[in-house]
Amino acid sequence: MYKVIASDLDGTLLDGDHTASAFTARTMQALQARGVPLIIATGRHYCDVRGIRAALGIRAHLITSNGARVHDPDDRQMYAKNIAPAIVREMMQPEFSDGATVNLYLDEEWLIGAPCEWLKDMHKDSGFTYRIDDLPKHSGEGVAKVLYIAEPEHLAKIEAKLYARFGHGLYITYSLPDCLEIMAPTVSKGHALQVVLDSLQLQMANCVAFGDGLNDLEMLGTAGHPFMMGNANPKLVALLPDVPQIGRNTDAAVALKLRELFKLEQ
């Protein structure tokens, strides 16, 4: 019945300081030892998540940049989709970016328009960090994700401008209320999850999935056994009212639920 596991990271698998607890790591290692395929599905950069996977001590497929990149456990790239360069260049201009901290995710680099110290705290497990760049002059080539960070009210204005200018030519979502994320229109965690499951010859009906943010909507909406965190975004709860909620990420709720489902010792 349960044959594969997919989990978001921040607000889900990771604890309150954005690191993996020893209990969670032991749980994932025990499941891997049973032969259960593991998938990490996150908005984070691939290079960052590669380090988190190492900290967990597991082999796992990586869905990163909300599905714009997919890698297998040996770090072979299975799928990649970029935003059209002309659109990226336009999004980097003050009309859209003014007042927000702007980030670009490329294959091996994370670029940012201005320093943001608290972001570094979220990457303690991996050690991956950004490089400051003049983003309005960037070519727009090779960009998996654009990330705007600002107060939710300001991001709502940027989001409205993006929809007005590009319609549904982009996939626009939120990982956190203060993190607006933009990818190519065909990108989502749900689509990327299907790519991985097809490669494993497994069915979505047998997939257990965990998430807490709006960027988890497509993954939780298509997995056969979805679970939502007790700390989930209220908008996600409203969109998926039938998805059961478990405990909070700060209480290792994913690890506890997996031990229950797979009958591991608590």
Automatic annotation (TrEMBL):
Entry cofactors: Mg(2+)
UniProt entry keywords in alphabetical sequence: Hydrolase, Magnesium, Metal-binding
Keyword Ubl conjugation on entry: no
Record flagged with keyword Hydrolase: yes
Family: Belongs to the HAD-like hydrolase superfamily. Cof family.
Protein name listed in UniProt: Cof-type HAD-IIB family hydrolase
Species annotation: Jeongeupia chitinilytica
